[in-house]
Amino acid sequence: MSRTTPRRAEPSEATKLAKNGKLNPEAAEPLWREACGRLPKGERPPYRQVTFTLHVTQLATVQRAIKLAKGKGATSKVNANSNGNAIAKVCRDWLKEQRKTSDSGPGKPKRGR
After folding, report:
1. What is the pTM assigned to this prediction?
2. How far apart are CA 75 and CA 92, in angstroms?
3. Burial class (CB in 10 A: 0-12, 13-18, 19+), 48
4. Can you point out the beta strands (E) in the chain?
5. Any residues with CB less than 8 A from the CB of 87 and at least 6 apart, and which?
6. pLDDT value at 27 more than 60
């Protein structure tokens, strides 16, 4: 069996941008200019990505709520993301419940009566 010398990989863009673990501004500038030149002008797309930080003790609750919301038809005509739709449903339902309890608080008649 003959041994062949492995092909040397081309340096990645990240490697080219770094010198001794520090950013090389001269190498980064054309890439930033190219990326920024492609940013959309005017209106943004109608979608937003949101990140939440949860403690491990909160994670199971959120995952369970998402799963239940998906099972109760958390869908949307404008968004195909099932997790986003489930979170929106949980929030809508929670807000609806808050309105009910605040409208029928102490000394207030319940709505619809």
Report:
1. 0.53
2. 13
3. exposed
4. 18-19, 22-23
5. 66, 69
6. yes
Q: Residue 74: what are its φ and ψ, rounded to 5°?
A: -80, 85
Q: How many CB atoms lie within 10 A of CB 27?
A: 14
How many other CB atoms sit within 10 Å of the CB of residue 18? 15
Q: Which residue has the higher pLDDT, 43 or 70?
A: 70
Burial 59-91, CB ≥16 within 10 A → b, else e:
eeeeeebbeebeeeebeeeeeeeeebbbbebbe
Residue 51 phi, psi dihedral angles, 5° rounding = -120, 135
Per DSSP, the three-state class of 12 is: coil
Residue-level pLDDT at 113: 44
Contact 31, 17 (CB under 8 A): yes
Tokens read off for 17: 């941008």
CB 41 within 8 Å of CB 56: no
